[in-house]
Each structure stands twice: as C-alpha cells, then as structure tokens.
Amino acid sequence: MEILRINGGNKLEGTARVQGAKNSVLPIMAASLLARGTTVIHNCPRLSDVDAAVKILTHLGCGITREGGRVIINSSSVTRCDIPHELMREMRSSVIFLGAVLARCGEAVLSMPGGCELGPRPVDLHIEALRSLGAEITRDGGNISCRAAKMKGCRVNLDFPSVGATENTMLFAACCDGATVITNAAREPEIWDLQSYLTRLGYRVHGAGTPEVTVEGAAVSGDTEHSVIPDRVVAATYLAAAACTGGDIEITGVVPGHLAAAADALAGMGCRVTGSCDSVRIDASTPRRAIRPVVTRPYPGFPTDAQPPIMAACLRAEGTTVFVENIFENRYRHTDEMKRLGADIRIEGRVAMVTGVKRLRGAPVVSTDLRGGASLVLAALMAEGVTEVSGVRHIDRGYDDLAGVLRSLGAEVSRTRIADMTGFE
Ligand code: UD1
C-alpha cells in the first residue's frame, strides 16, 4: 500500500494552479453518452474516480482516449445498458450514469451500492424524478432496472436540492418529449457546467445556478469540446493548507466567487484573503482565531466537502469553533484521527466542537474518505515531526497529485510504497 509521509512545520509559500473539478467532469463524462459522437473534455484531472468513469464508458461500448489533461470520448456506438457491481462500487457517485444510460438506451440496469464512507446513499429523489418523467423503475436486491416507457417532460420538484438527482433529471429530461422544469434544483456551479456542456451539444437548457432549471428535450447528436470548471473544493483545500501553516500562497485558475463561503471562513480566522479575476491569495501570517459556527448547506451555503479542510485549519486556532454537518451523517470520521495528532474535538451528533491547541504531534493516521483524508494531510503539515497517512486511495479519488502540489509550495511530503501489513488496503 502507499502512504503519504509528511514532516510538518514548513510554511506554504508560492503559487499553484488548481485542477479541473471532479464533480463537473464525472457528470459530463456520463452526459457524453447523449452526444452520439465525439466529446473532447479539457482540464480533466487525473483521478481514480475519472479512471472508474472511463471503465464504465468503455464497458458500455464507448471509445476513450486520454492525452494529458484531455479525455476524448466517442459515444457513437453504445452497445449495452448495464453497469455491473464491480464497476459501480469503484466510484461513490456512479449513480450519475443512471439518467444518461436511460436517456441513451431507453433502459438501464445498474447495481446500486448500499452505502459509502459518508453513510447511507439513498437514491429515492433520483428515482422519484425519473419516474415522474415516465421511467418504469424496479429495485431487486442491489439492482435497479429502469425502462423508459414514455419519456415526457413535466414539472419535477425535488424535496431536497440534491446535486446528483438534479443532474440525473437533467440528463434524462434531455431526451424526453417537451420541456422539463426542475424546481428546488441544486444550484452548485457543477450544475451550471453540465448545462454549459449540454448547451454546447445543442440542447436548450437554462436556469442552472437558480433553483429552477429547464431542459427542453431534443434529438441531438454531434461532436463537441468542453473545458471543465476549476475545482472549488480542491482550491479551498489548498487555501486551508496555507492557513494551517501560517503561509502565504496564491491559487490560480479558480473562479473566486465559487470559493466565497470557504474564503469567508478563512478570513474570519484572521487570514487575509484577496481575489482577482481568476486567482485567490491567502496570507495567513497572523495567528488564527476560532470562527463563528460553520454550518454546511447546499450551495451557496458552506460546502460539506470543505468542512474537513476548514476544520483542519481550526485545530490550532485560538478558541472554539463549532461545526454543524447537515448534508452527510457520517462526515466526522477524520476527527478521531485528528485526535491522534493531539487535536481537541468533541462530537455530539451533527455538531463538532473544535478547540484550538498549542501544538500537534505527528503520528500514523488512516484516511477513511476523500476530504477527511486530505484534512489529515493538512493537519500533518502543522504537526511537529512525521505523520504517516495511509488510505491514500481515498485521496486519489479527488486530488490530482496532492503531494506534488504541496511539495511545490514548500511542504515536506513524500509518497511511499510500503509492505501491506495491516489489511487496510
Ligand atoms: C455531490 C458531490 C459531493 C458533495 C455533495 C453535496 C458529485 C460527484 N458529488 O454528491 O462531492 O459532497 O454533492 O454537495 O457531484 N439524498 C437523499 N436522496 C437522494 C439523493 C440524496 O436523501 O435520492 C441526500 C443524501 O443522502 C445527502 C444529501 O441528499 O444527505 C445530499 O446529497 P447529494 O446532493 O445528492 O450529493 P451527491 O450528488 O451524491
């Protein structure tokens, strides 16, 4: 297995460019099934979740080529509509293929994972939305079978603005007769990016970024190119890393507006955060202090994915910061590992109380999920001595060379292969 070995204490300094957004590229890769032609995706990060999506598309019959940051998907001939369990389980969010496969093939058979690192993974909102557009759906054990009996656009209200359910509904609606109006839609920037891809393909989609997204069904095919938006969670992670170490860095290639909630939290700690048109700089040279409660909510609220890295930045801030996690029920698994480094964290249900400590000390820790794993690396950057983070495969799902980027900013981080004695990987 591989571990990240971090020798803490270095201040981060310099400039790094952020990767393309994982949460944009995955739904767009699924959406490429609708193109019936060639889609070239630019700014695609190197991630194991992208590898998993490539495997799924290949299994379905698409031709895929990867060249650096480009993925070229030829979906002219899709030969099957099932995705087996071993492919589905590789990617937490593989359910985003449901709407696209159903739209393209008129049927879809997917094996549904029961849960994931963050807790149960219900798909009721996805199913309800697709049913209202005319899909017949049956669940049998771990499988979900869908048939597009009639495909008729209508008004679809989501009880919660789920990102994945909004994306699945948009993709299925693109092939339904007439217009679909999704109300209480997710407003995340990645929804806008999916709209932008579908529009490039020739679909008429509007409203992304607001709670009402309209998709007009059409028969569209053709070749297209699309560049995915910058990854706001990865950018927030690097900014938080600078805050942890009292550093001064600039992250380029970002959309500063997408980072508003995380930047506000960091500014509240006493960091100087300034944005230009496509970069954000953070100067964390003054001591950090606790901030007002960090309450995770759908966009534009504080993103659940940025909760663990911002928590890392609070571990040595003076005073107590309260976190309230409203999106995923199992999103504090990193806190036990942070405590191994000396952090003072108390958990009561959805609430975590983090009281800043004077010092953290390196120790072996285990990453159990993507953002939690990254937050352990951040904590290690300010711990005295060496921290070894195992479970690196979780981090690889969403960070394109986290160790390399941190090294380029002055951190002492190496990636090492060690004999697997633990059975963790
Ligand atoms: C997406 C992101 C993920 C981010 C999350 C919330 C991708 C690939 N992943 O995940 O990084 O953490 O948004 O911003 O874009 N829910 C239901 N029923 C459903 C669907 C969801 O109850 O049918 C619940 C979930 O259990 C969760 C909440 O809604 O509590 C939010 O989930 P959702 O917005 O769907 O997240 P994802 O699309 O899975």
Brief characterization of the structure:
31% of the residues lie in helices and 28% in strands.
For the record, the count of structural domains works out to 2
Total strands? 28
- In the CATH scheme, the class of the largest domain would be Alpha Beta
Estimate the helix proportion, in percent.
Answer: 25-40%
Low-confidence stretches: none
Distance from N terminus to C terminus (CA atoms, Å) equals: 6 Å
Give the arrangement of secondary structure elements:
Elements: E1 2-7, E2 13-17, H1 22-31, E3 38-42, H2 48-60, E4 63-67, E5 70-74, E6 82-83, H3 85-88, H4 97-105, E7 107-111, E8 115-116, E9 119-120, H5 124-132, E10 135-140, E11 143-148, E12 155-157, H6 163-173, E13 179-183, H7 189-201, E14 204-206, E15 212-216, E16 224-227, H8 232-245, E17 248-252, H9 260-268, E18 272-275, E19 279-283, E20 294-295, H10 307-314, E21 320-324, H11 333-340, E22 344-348, E23 351-355, E24 360-361, E25 364-366, H12 370-381, E26 383-384, E27 386-390, H13 392-396, H14 402-408, E28 412-417
Parallel strand pairs: 2-17, 3-16, 6-7, 12-13, 20-21, 24-26, 25-27
Antiparallel strand pairs: 1-27, 1-28, 3-5, 4-5, 7-11, 8-9, 10-11, 13-15, 14-15, 17-19, 18-19, 21-23, 22-23
Helix pairs in contact: 1-2, 1-7, 4-6, 5-6, 6-7, 8-10, 8-12, 10-12, 11-12
